[in-house]
Description:
Layout: H1 2-9, E1 12-15, H2 17-30, H3 37-46, E2 50-53, E3 61-65, E4 68-69, H4 72-75, H5 78-88, H6 91-106, E5 110-113, H7 117-121, E6 129-132, H8 135-148, H9 155-171, E7 184-187, H10 193-205
Parallel strand pairs: 1-5, 6-7
Antiparallel strand pairs: 2-3, 3-4
Helix pairs in contact: 1-10, 2-5, 3-6, 5-9, 8-9
Amino acid sequence: MARCTARRLNVLYLDTGAMYRALAYLALQTRTDVDNGAALARLAVLMSIAVALDFSAPLGFRIFAGGDELDERKLQSNEVTAIVSTVAAHAEVRAAMVDAQRRIAQAGPVVMAGRDIGTVVLPDAPVKIFLTASVPARIARRRAQFEAAGVDIDAHRLGEEIEERDRLDRTRAISPLAPAPDAHIIDSSEITASQVVDEICAIVAGV
Length: 207
């Protein structure tokens, strides 16, 4: 939905979660301890996680780690999903990622998707959207996303992972998941993606 909104507004798009997933992928490949924030931050620098904004790419942008482009199958693998919240919880990791994300925003208008954009990364953004949905709705959507990427996933296991990731993100000490005080909250459980985009674009038009 963020990508569609960016297309509708004709601005750049970035899913910041992919940056944390790229680091989680690197941690698995290099057997870096996911509980060691300093080691993970060093890994991000040494292996050079980079983003190239590109509407024509399957993700809407291209992401590289260690010089190699990572596709959606790698970023959305079960192994990466299982550790990404742990990786993203470290202060050293978030500091490095936030700095990179702010540099992207300074380059021009962007629709930036992530769990701490309105509260931490871009607290002065003119429009902040906190998009939510019920767990059953999210399971159905994630399964469709995984299937499109060629990844098999069990619905029960996926539900447990979604709830656990939410719990970890809400209770982490650094940048916990929460809506910004001035965010527009949209519950997408019972409406289509297109309707969500319409609502977001209407909010932008009114600013």
